[in-house]
Design brief:
single chain, alpha/beta, six-stranded parallel sheet, globular, binds ligand V0D
């Protein structure tokens, strides 16, 4: 098929260039996708999980080292209880079906955010998911759950204060030292941030870490974000990099 040829060509093109080490994605538009199709919102989230599965597979195949997915923000608690409850069933469902493949593919699952405030069954699921993959040394898959970037930065400041009191660190804190107090400690900053669904905002996601990231916005709703859309985003990223190189 014609689409298949286009996909293969773009894939070849991208694999000849520099693959972003760390890709971060704000997975937006599940509700709107469902509404446009006359479906209930949870159908959008269910389909959103399918996009997560496919994206994890695609990123791993392309050789991306870190994938960070923004799944549930501290602001999402304001949604209807029934929707929040449905969202909270997703991590368990996801691991039930995906954990064997994640383990097979050497993916290491990590969580970033205030996971301690999530329902116990969610904490149990995500703890098991990260425990069972902790020795994997392939792609790092970060799920941002109950995550807020300003909270993360304040948490870092308070951890530093605590360390100062206890260990009496005299050294001045530089950017590298500060980064070590963030949830993303030890990981490279995102090279590329994708936001789906046409919103042109960062919405309190990885504010410190995206200081130098390329930003890519697409109108595509998260449930329909395909391998082709991912390749197009990476292609744009590579073109921008090449352009800067020429100046
Ligand atoms: C809904 C689109 C995977 C965004 C994707 C609880 C919103 C589908 C997870 C997941 C959600 C999280 C942690 C984990 C394993 C899987 C997920 C939520 C929402 C919020 F360790 N998809 N997903 N979590 N959606």
């Amino acid at each position: 098929m014609k689409e298949d040829i286009k996909l293969k060509e773009l894939e070849q093109k991208i694999l000849a260039g520099v693959i972003p080490q760390h890709l971060a994605i704000i997975m937006d538009g599940n509700g709107r996708w469902a509404a446009e199709k006359g479906l209930p919102r949870h159908e959008g989230h269910r389909q959103g999980v399918e996009s997560v599965r496919a994206t994890v597979r695609n990123c791993n195949e392309l050789g991306i080292s870190v994938l960070t997915l923004f799944a549930f923000s501290t602001e999402n608690w304001q949604r209807p209880i029934s929707e929040v409850n449905y969202l909270m069933s997703l991590p368990e469902k996801y691991f039930d079906s995906e954990l064997p493949e994640l383990i097979r593919n050497n993916v290491q699952v990590r969580l970033i955010g205030e996971t301690g405030k999530l329902p116990r069954k969610v904490q149990k699921a995500v703890r098991e998911g990260s425990e069972k993959t902790k020795d994997n040394d392939g792609m790092v898959l970060n799920f941002a759950l109950n995550y807020g970037s300003r909270d993360e930065i304040l948490r870092a400041v308070n951890l530093i204060i605590k360390d100062l009191k206890e260990k009496n660190i005299k050294k001045k804190i530089d950017e590298n030292a500060f980064s070590d107090y963030l949830y993303t400690a030890g990981l490279p900053d995102p090279d590329l941030l994708i936001r789906t669904s046409g919103e042109l905002r960062i919405s309190n996601f990885l504010l410190w870490q995206i200081a130098y990231s390329e930003l890519y916005f697409t109108e595509v709703y998260w449930p329909e974000f395909s391998r082709m859309h991912l390749l197009e985003a990476i292609d744009t990223f590579q073109q921008r990099k090449r352009r800067y190189g020429k100046i």
